[in-house]
Design goal:
By secondary structure, the protein is α/β, with parallel strands linked by helices. It is elongated, with a radius of gyration of 17 Å. Helix 3 links the parallel strand 4 and strand 5. The termini are far apart. The relative contact order is 0.20. The longest helix is centred in the first third of the chain and has 19 residues. The strands form two sheets. Strands 1-4-5 form a three-stranded parallel β-sheet. The protein is built from four helices and five strands; from the N terminus they run E-H-H-E-E-E-H-E-H.
Length: 114
């Protein structure tokens, strides 16, 4: 089995990453809370052969599927949008990393002070 870890950096990376994870959930039948709904016996037999979602999601002991990703941004508002959005229950809190303030598009400020 292959596993992919996605790292989303900055405002654009976090916003695009959140949209991608919504699509991954739709494609693999995972609900916004990380649960995979049970299906009928015929559909379940077909789904048993397809474990491709394990490439992108890891299963917790409680049966919840969590994305294999990390979202990082110095400025907290974009990551807070993910924390309070529709898919907020999908992510583990340790996957969403944000700073207290951004570098205001100034490399030196971000490198030397934050």
């Amino acid at each position: 089995m292959r596993e992919c870890l996605l790292i989303h950096l900055g405002q654009a990376g976090t916003q695009i990453g959140n949209a991608c994870w919504e699509l991954f959930c739709l494609e693999h039948g995972i609900q916004p809370d990380g649960q995979k709904p049970t299906a009928s016996a015929d559909a379940e037999a077909e789904a048993a052969d397809d474990d491709s979602f394990n490439t992108f999601f890891s299963e917790t002991g409680a049966g919840k599927y969590v994305p294999r990703c990390v979202m990082v941004d110095l400025e907290p508002t974009v990551v807070d949008e993910v924390r309070t959005g529709t898919y907020r229950q999908l992510y583990h809190p340790e996957q969403l990393i944000s700073g207290k303030e951004d570098a205001a598009n100034n490399y030196a400020r971000g490198h030397y002070t934050i």
